[in-house]
Specification:
homodimer; 21% strand; globular; DNA-binding
Chain lengths: 141, 141
DNA sequence: GCCAAAACTGCAACTATATTGCAATTCACA
DNA sequence: TGTGAATTGCAATATAGTTGCAGTTTTGGC
């Protein structure tokens, strides 16, 4: 996809979700669109280069995106939160993530999925199930 | 279990895992033994009261316990890491955790389990699979 | 295009969480 | 009971995320 197509796509997504198409939001969404794995605030900022908005702004955009389900947080072994688009997930289940305990790299396992948990005690309502696998990646095993 | 039985149990576990039975390690392990859910450093310190070791010591003990598999870290929605004994888990899979998005409480779902993920691409080696569910607990739903 | 309201951004200060270095203490075991 | 190794506490530091507020940009109605 060309960069201008990507920009158009980001703008469409923002409009559809009733967000303003500000420079910062478009830029950040583009980074998420081209990434094949969840990114931390730190990584996003590095990818965005000179034009990058303020750290606080990055956090605030991510928070807004999360609130409306455009993006979600992934809770991994790393200390920092990571963020990814929700498009590879169903309402109730996020695709599994694999994190290499050697190199620290995270992989999205978009091809695999697990059933939703059953037999929960009465009263528990599931919003989202996340699966988080720890191990060695092909490069480190 | 009486307090002295608990102490004995903690000491046995420490010895079996080749740890010294220091006051701090016994105290901390006792807290983990009586807890039915993963605890953060903060929560551990609160539970230990006056006799509580230094924050840094708590982190260091937890780290040592994790290294030898006595304890493991759970990666949840909360910003702080949580720790629990490994005894309710199999080698490859930790029991699922449920975190209420309303009250923030975490529940161990020791009765339920999911199959291990299959069909991973060649070269991936699984060490541990964690399942993390987000939703509403009986009190909040 | 121009204007007002709403949404968004940047800066500075701050809070929470975890880590490091090093000297002092405690522990296991001969 | 003495000794080396393991453990601990304190102070300083690093890292991650948040808050308040003033200023800027964006949108939507004219």
């Amino acid at each position: 996809m060309t960069n201008s197509n990507l920009t158009t796509k980001a703008e469409e997504i923002l409009k559809a979700a009733k967000f303003n198409c500000t420079k910062a939001q478009v830029l950040l969404l583009k980074e998420l669109l081209i990434s094949d794995k969840p990114l931390s605030r730190e990584e996003l900022i590095q990818h965005m280069g000179q034009k990058c908005p303020d750290t606080v702004t990055v956090y605030r955009i991510l928070e807004r995106f999360c609130e409306r389900g455009l993006v979600h947080k992934v809770y991994l072994q790393s200390r920092a939160w990571k963020y990814e688009l929700g498009h590879n997930c169903t309402t109730k289940q996020c695709h599994p993530h694999f994190t290499c305990s050697d190199c620290g790299e995270t992989f999205c396992l978009t091809g695999s999925s697990l059933p939703l948990i059953k037999d929960l005690k009465k009263g528990f309502v599931i919003h989202r199930q996340q699966v988080n696998i720890d191990g060695l990646c092909p490069a480190c095993s």
